[in-house]
From TrEMBL:
SUPFAM superfamilies: Composite domain of metallo-dependent hydrolases, Metallo-dependent hydrolases. It comes from Sporolactobacillus spathodeae. One of its GO terms (molecular function) is hydrolase activity. It catalyses: S-methyl-5'-thioadenosine + H2O + H(+) = S-methyl-5'-thioinosine + NH4(+); S-adenosyl-L-homocysteine + H2O + H(+) = S-inosyl-L-homocysteine + NH4(+). It comes from the Bacteria. Substrate binds at E92, R162, E222, D307. Keywords: Hydrolase, Metal-binding, Zinc. The gene is mtaD. Its EC number is 3.5.4.28, 3.5.4.31. Binds 1 zinc ion per subunit. The keyword Zinc applies. This is 5-methylthioadenosine/S-adenosylhomocysteine deaminase. Zn(2+) binds at H63, H65, H219, D307.
């Protein structure tokens, strides 16, 4: 196995003591084997100079839609249901195999360039295999699944599916991709939200997730209109309904969770459900502001996600961290959502959400070598003397400060150069693909 040594860096470990070490980090194969003050260079096949650099655990984005990256800028300034019905669903229905692959590669390139190494991804109804092909080729770590939609109003024919077909196709994808490349890729069942899914589908998903020992990833309580529809259809609030049918468990990752009653928050806490906070998306769609400080104080595990490119309009964890730290302070005081708390959400707490806290989320011997190397020696991030490195990262750093990204011990980006993605090809072909989709969807270009 090859070895790689990062020498003389400031290492933000995010171990149990949240130690910050000035020293070296040694990688052998896909694992960190040593992290400490000094490791001899002859111990490695290759040495990276870490002087003046900060090494951090790779970010874990707990809610992403790679299939939507091509739609960036195509659905601005709309509220959620109009955003879905007028723009996103028609464009998703227009996707073909090539466009899904390009959309995924475009998103993954942005994620890797911003230091994100693991994603929880929700695709669209069709062509999900091509998204998995992109994930496999790029080297990113992913928990991903085909979206499931077997009911709903104003759903394009291209997204409407029979319950049996949705379940069968999901299982086929799981059996092909779950555990790929030593577990770098895993499958998650992805019912879109209660409005789009019959109870039969949701209960079958519950049982399949138990049978295959995997996760369920869905949206919940993002918008008050959504909650009203769920209440009308089920007689219950969103989380209460999910609990009623047995879906609320430690296997469940819920995106958003803005409009929750106290009883619903208690269900999430008691069942061990994980919540993905998406502040950029929630602000842009004017969905609201989740009670994240309260949920954190209750002991609910919270991760961070950018959501999809057309509701954000980027996949930048640095922006999500900064927003998560800032938007809750006016109501909860300046000490709420401090930088360390937010950085935990982006790293080790995200790892807990995907059941991998023993493998990723911190830089410790024995863990996977998923990390990013930052250069903060720029106007926007200086001076640094006496400043907490985590505060610098959360409040001052930007995505272009990421110089190198390593996943599973592989250099997927080095010195801002992509190593696993043909950047010029993806950027060129993405423009051609979105023009084709817009025309097919019957939307103005």
């Amino acid at each position: 196995m090859s070895t790689l040594l990062i020498k003389d860096a400031e290492i933000v470990t995010m171990n149990a003591k949240e130690e910050i070490i000035t020293g070296d980090l040694l990688i052998q194969g896909d694992r960190i084997v040593s992290c400490g003050p000094s490791i001899e260079p002859h111990a490695a096949d290759r040495v990276l100079d870490g002087r003046g650099r900060i090494v951090i655990p790779g970010f874990i984005q707990t809610h992403i839609h790679l299939c939507q990256t091509l739609f960036r800028g195509r659905a601005d300034d709309l509220q959620l249901m109009d955003w879905l019905r007028k723009r996103i669903w028609p464009l998703e229905a227009a996707h073909d195999k090539e466009s899904i692959y390009l959309s995924a590669m475009l998103g993954i390139g942005e994620l890797i360039a911003g230091g994100s190494t693991t994603i929880v991804d929700m695709e669209t109804v069709h062509h999900t295999n091509e998204a998995f092909e992109a994930i496999a080729a790029s080297g990113i770590r992913a928990l991903s699944g085909k979206v499931m939609m077997d009911k709903g109003e104003d759903v394009p024919a291209g997204l409407s599916e029979r319950t049996e077909d949705s379940l069968r196709e999901s299982v086929d994808l799981l059996e092909k991709w779950n555990g790929f490349d030593g577990g770098r890729i895993r499958y998650a069942f992805a019912p879109r939200f209660v409005i789009s899914c019959t109870e039969k589908l949701l209960t079958e998903v519950r049982d399949l997730a138990e049978h295959y020992d995997t996760f369920i990833h869905t949206h919940a309580s993002e918008n008050q209109g959504e909650i009203a529809i769920v209440a009308q259809q089920t007689g219950m609030r969103n989380i209460a309904y999910l609990d009623h049918i047995g879906l609320a468990s430690k296997r469940l990752i819920l995106a958003h969770c803005i409009w929750l009653s106290d009883a619903e928050k208690a269900i999430i806490r008691d069942r061990g459900v994980h919540v993905s906070h998406c502040p950029g998306s929630n602000l842009k769609l004017a969905s609201g502001r989740a009670a994240v400080p309260q949920m954190a104080n209750m002991g609910i595990n919270l991760g961070l996600g950018a959501d999809g490119a057309p509701c954000n309009n980027n996949l930048d964890m640095f922006q999500e961290m900064r927003l998560a730290a800032l938007i809750h302070k006016p109501s909860n005081g300046p000490t709420a959502m401090d930088a360390h708390h937010v950085f935990r959400m982006a790293t080790i707490d995200g790892a807990k959400a995907v059941g991998m806290e023993k493998e990723i989320g911190s830089l410790e011997p024995g863990k996977k070598a998923d990390l990013a190397i930052l250069n903060l020696n720029h106007f926007h991030a200086l001076p640094y003397s006496g400043v907490d490195p985590i505060s610098r990262i959360v409040y001052s750093a930007i995505c272009s400060d990421v110089e190198t990204t390593i996943i599973d011990g592989h250099l997927v980006m080095e010195n801002r150069q992509m190593r696993t993605i043909d950047q010029e090809l993806v950027l060129r072909e993405a423009e051609t693909a979105i023009k084709r989709l817009v025309q097919r969807a019957g939307l103005a270009n």
